Amino acid sequence: MSTSYNRIAYEALEVCNGVTMTAVEGAVARTGLGAGATAADVGTGNAGVAIRLAQGLGAAVTAIEYDPVMADLARERIAEAGADVILAVGAAADVLADLPPLDLITALGTTNVNGEGRPTPEAGFAFLKTRLKPGGWLLWGDLVWIAEPPGPLRQIAEATNQYTDDTGWKTAAQSAGFEVVWSEVSPQAVFDAYATAADRAARDWLAAHPGAPQAGAVQTSADRVKMVLEFGRPFIGFGLYLLRA
Fold first, then answer.
1. What are the φ/ψ torsions at residue 160 (nearest 5 degrees)?
2. pTM flag (> 0.85)
3. Is the domain 5-191+225-244 a CATH 3.40.50.150 member?
4. How does pLDDT run across 174-223, given as a tens digit for each residue?
5. If we measure between CA atoms, which residue out of 221, 217, 232, 215 comes closest to residue 199?
6. Buried b (16+ CB within 10 A) or exposed e, 74-91
7. Average pLDDT over the chain, rounded to whole?
8. I need a surface site. Which of 41, 85, 98, 140 has the fewest CB within 10 A?
């Protein structure tokens, strides 16, 4: 079975980011959506959020994952849960473009959400708004700068995404035509627990598979992520934003 640092780390987590499932479910509950709502979970990872949307909300859910290794994990989790979730493997922009406008999009820690490489927050939100019904909902979660980061940290962290602070995310959402209904920056303890659990899973896997072909790549990724998160602890948080089109 092919594996990667992300698969190993995310297999140990309930949500593949520095946020709790309780916070995600609480935000979704604020939408008032129920059975029959249409939803997409972008960058589904281990499919935890997609499964909850299907089983807890009763939504018709499409889980979108670009990474085929992560898609294998998502497929396994969906089957284990017996969840009525469609898994679409491909670029988020392409999959969303083929779906009719949705009632809800969840996008937590996504990359290249609009197909433009490293979109600005404004561009990412503007694209996602086009994939929602009028009055539809976006639950967006991503890294938040809780203090101005040193230049090298910003450069490393923003290799695949452009980030901003809490005010910046809200301003970007509003500029794209969203109403910011609710938001929360995860408590530091939640973000720390996420980082610790992911690192522990990787270290345990490495100890159990010292000769695996993927061990070198997993080790490199684990060391890099740990270094960035430890150095960046005073600067990095995770924000969750419930937005209405």
1. -120, -20
2. yes
3. yes
4. 999 999 999 999 999 999 999 999 999 999 999 999 999 999 999 999 99
5. 221
6. bbebbeebebebebbbee
7. 96
8. 98
Q: What is the 3-state secondary structure (H, E, C) of the chain?
A: CCCCHHHHHHHCCCCCCCCCHHHHHHHHHCCCCCCCCEEEEECCCCCHHHHHHHHHHCCEEEEEECCHHHHHHHHHHHHHHCCCEEEEECCHHHHHHHCCCEEEEEEECCCCCCCCCCCCHHHHHHHHHHCEEEEEEEEEEEEEECCCCCHHHHHHHCCCCCCECHHHHHHHHHHCCCEEEEEEECCHHHHHHHHHHHHHHHHHHHHHCCCCCCHHHHHHHHHHHHHHHHHCCCCEEEEEEEEEC
Q: What tokens appear for 136 in the block?
A: 């539809």
Q: Which two tokens stand for residue 116?
A: 């433009």
Q: Break the chain into its structural domains and give their ranges.
A: 5-191+225-244
User: What confidence category does residue 160 fall into, taking pLDDT thresholds of 50, 70 and 90?
Assistant: confident
CB 73 within 8 A of CB 16: no
Look at the block and give the residue holding tokens 């962290």.
157
